[in-house]
């Protein structure tokens, strides 16, 4: 089991990562709780709720709330439904919410915990590769039809308990989605990590040692950044590499019609191209494109309006005075933020989408 302590401006919490560690769930809780509500989705519920229930302290009263699987559950309706469930289950300020699932559940349940009775404890029990990213750092949110994660907060969990055995049931599409955030951590941190991921075939079973190594390295990159800039005043923006266009694609296509990671994967391709054009440098665009293609990432999109995408990018949380800010790379491991003029963005995006091709 690998343990990493995260220190934020408001608290400290441990991230536990390892095979089979769910059995020790009760030991990883920082204190005793008498009333615990597990929030999960319909797919994860079938697979893992019973285990989690079994390993929670037997003295606690435990309830389970299940939302439909998928991005559409990061909605105001499901958020309100879960608050009602918390009230019905008599959760009080000393109670605990367990977020059991991927990033959708972590973001949603975390936002419920952040706002119920002005904030109660929650722990993240991630079950997707992507959630090595979403369970760490304390960003919790729901979506608005106008944009991703527009309603949320920074609200760190009490602990992250990541049993990587759960990843064995992940379908390939979710492995791809998760690995987009893994390779993002490579791009923004160091060449060796990036190259290791570029050499990994994720279409077949990834050796557990390698997978755990990639997850731990990704978590370390993220932890280092959020410890220095929890509320995204400056360097935390680097974790948004690929997200300015990625989020715009997700909301423009309609939530759930492309996975978060697959949209971000295309967003990173664009960010690399903009970096090369802006700084007149060469980055591993071809190697990355080849890896995406070999691992069956979607590399074409249904026809999308450049203007609509730009309007969406302007609603991104990094935007200032309606000017789009993107995270670019000066080289692998050296991210920067850059304001892009509307004219440049129109030209670059038009060219990029044309090259990417339409379905
Ligand atoms: N808060 C953050 O810092 C942060 C970081 C990255 C992404 N996110 C958010 O995370 C969300 C995406 O997370 P995700 O990709 O984990 O999506 P998800 O939670 O929807 O999970 C993906 C799918 O996999 C299923 N699933 C989950 N675990 C499984 C398992 N072990 N076996 C089989 N199926 C399983 C789920 O039911 C779902 O259908 C997006 O909303 C994104 O915005 C947040
Ligand atoms: O933790 C962060 O900071 C990130 O940007 C991580 C991203 O992978 C994640 O998708 C995050 O939810 C995006 O945040 P947002 O502030 O752009 O909504
Ligand atoms: Zn992301």
TrEMBL record:
- Give UniProt keywords alphabetically: Amino-acid biosynthesis, Aromatic amino acid biosynthesis, Cobalt, Cytoplasm, Lyase, Metal-binding, NAD, Nucleotide-binding, Zinc
Q: In which pathway does it act?
A: Metabolic intermediate biosynthesis; chorismate biosynthesis; chorismate from D-erythrose 4-phosphate and phosphoenolpyruvate: step 2/7
Give the note describing cofactor binding and stoichiometry. Binds 1 divalent metal cation per subunit. Can use either Co(2+) or Zn(2+).
This chain's function reads: Catalyzes the conversion of 3-deoxy-D-arabino-heptulosonate 7-phosphate (DAHP) to dehydroquinate (DHQ).
- Mind telling me which PANTHER family this protein's record contains? 3-DEHYDROQUINATE SYNTHASE, 3-DEHYDROQUINATE SYNTHASE, CHLOROPLASTIC
This protein is called: 3-dehydroquinate synthase
Q: What is its main location?
A: cytoplasm
- Which parts of the sequence belong to the 3-dehydroquinate synthase C-terminal domain? 178-319
According to its UniProt record, this protein's enzyme class is lyase
Binding residues for NAD(+):
103-107, 127-128, 139, 148, 166-169
Q: Where in the cell is it found?
A: Cytoplasm
* UniProt GO BP: amino acid biosynthetic process; aromatic amino acid family biosynthetic process; chorismate biosynthetic process
Q: Does the keyword Iron apply?
A: no
What family is this? Answer: Belongs to the sugar phosphate cyclases superfamily. Dehydroquinate synthase family.
Q: Which Pfam families match?
A: DHQ_synthase (PF01761), DHQS_C (PF24621)
Q: Which HAMAP family match?
A: DHQ_synthase
Question: What is the catalytic activity of this protein?
Answer: 7-phospho-2-dehydro-3-deoxy-D-arabino-heptonate = 3-dehydroquinate + phosphate
Q: Which GO terms describe its molecular function?
A: 3-dehydroquinate synthase activity; metal ion binding; nucleotide binding
Name the cofactor(s): NAD(+); Co(2+); Zn(2+)
